[in-house]
Amino acid sequence: MTNRRIAAFVTTLALALPLVSPSAAGARTVSQAGISSDEIKVGGLIETQFAQSEVGAQARFADENAKGGVNGRNITYVTGATYAQGNTAAALAEGQRLVQQEGVAAIVPSLTSVPPTQFLTQQKVPTFAWNITPLGWDNPWYFGITGSLVAPTPKVAPGSASLPQMLGAQLKEEGRAKGGKGATIAIIGSSDASAQSGIDQARKTFVHEGYKVTYAKGAFSLTQPTTDYTPFVEAMLTSNGGSAPDIAYLIASFNDVQGLSKGLRQAGFTGIIVNPTTYDPRIIKAAETLEVYTQWATPEAAATVPNVQKVIDSIKKQDPEATLSLGTLAAWFSADMFIQAVKAAGKNVTTQSIQKAAAKMTYELKGVVGPTTYPTAFTQGTSCAQLAKSNGTTFDVLVEYDCYPTYVFGTGSSTKPVKTIPAPKV
Questions:
Q1: How far is CA 13 from the centre of its chain?
Q2: What confidence tens digit (pLDDT) does each residue in 163-192 have?
Q3: Across the beta sheet with 406-408, what order do the strands follow?
Q4: Which of 65, 191, 314, 401 could form a disulfide linkage to 386, CB 3.0–4.6 angstroms apart?
Q5: Nearest Cα residue to 339 out of 128, 142, 131
Q6: Separation of alpha carbons 107 and 28, rounded Å
Q7: pLDDT for 14 beyond 50
Q8: What is the DSSP string of 284-306?
Q9: 274-316: per-residue pLDDT in tens?
Q10: How far apart are CA 381 and CA 106, in angstroms?
């Protein structure tokens, strides 16, 4: 993920497109742009790390269309072009194409680290996303299924107690009487400013929960691939007074998680390696021994959570070969959230009425994802999660999906929260 600025956009197609107001510098009017009496057009922004995830949105829309649509309007998904991860220019070009040429009323889903938020906001296009980028922070037209997760510096996102408390529950289950209290943890991530701010928030949260943080640094470049993980392995494995910590927390891309995890294991590290990246049925073997925390319940929870099975059935009905990856699930949730917003907007729906409805709604699929409450979620992520581990054949759920408190820290080094937000009720 990156914190690059989106270049300013000046439209050149205003006179050619009936959906664009020639008197508003290219901005769309409050007309039924992409909305007719029997149809709502949407399209997705999807980069390569989430390739083929649109099947999740298509499945949810197909379910709703089979019931007659939303107030008589079917939802049409316009298939777009997948572009390279982090390619700002390609993301903007695809956003322009979907809005100005295809005439979509909304972006559903946005699964990208570089969404063209400046353009979409100027065009008054509501966007429903997995909001994993500072570009989507505090934007009234950009809605995250789990809120806004990354703040642009110098702002900071609140710290979620979810991972410290889940790891504490795991450690207690494994026989450590005090759980996470006194456990040691090394935290590593990317080197950009927003990532380093997030690492510091994680450090403060773990310390507040009773852990000893032995290492907390942004190390990996966003532009240059890492070829040698040895320095990072050595730094982490000697960070606990010359010894290894109990836990290695990797807030990094899939490639860096894989490379560093391999290096840690080869160096003899037997502790917990946890990350938010490596949940994907296609890489179970490659992720063996790694733990992954996710912001929603995964398919492995279907036996005890009926709504998880509902999502699986929906996606498999659309495409029996679909991969139930984080991206596919995020696309399904984004479409579900959009449908709820359209329903709340009423029969005379416009893009602005969808935005107004979403800006005061709570999105939740009971026991699976959320509750994500707006407008609070414009600047706060949903503090709910699940913890699982790959055994090389499948993912085992270690801690079931639940919600946890959120801590708001000051801008200094203090690890005492200035405010504690109670856990949402699942």
A1: 33
A2: 999 999 999 999 999 999 999 999 999 888
A3: 159-160, 406-408, 419-421
A4: 401
A5: 128
A6: 15
A7: no
A8: TTTTTT-EEEESS--GGGTTT-H
A9: 999 899 999 999 999 999 999 999 999 999 999 999 999 999 9
A10: 22
Matching residue, tokens 């934007």: 139
Residues contacting residue 81 through CB under 8 Å, at least 6 positions apart = 94, 97
pTM score, whole prediction: 0.90
Tokens of 202: 């994680």
Helices assigned H by DSSP within 115-239: 117-122, 162-173, 193-208, 230-237
Element counts in the chain: helices (H) and strands (E):
10, 17
Cα 164 → chain centroid: 19
Question: 407 Cβ partners below 8 Å, 6+ apart?
Answer: 158, 159, 160, 161, 204, 205, 208, 417, 419, 420, 421
Look-up of token digits 């490659």 = 286
Residue 140: pLDDT above 90?
Answer: yes
Domains of the chain are 14-146+305-378 (3.40.50.2300), 159-294+383-421 (3.40.50.2300)
Structure-token pair, residue 327: 């991206």
Of 355, 357, 300, residue with least CA distance to 329: 300
CA atoms of 370 and 165, how far apart (whole Å): 18
Q: Mind listing the pLDDT tens digit for each residue in 327-370? A: 999 999 999 999 999 999 999 999 999 999 999 999 999 999 99
Give the DSSP H or E segment for 316: helix 306-318
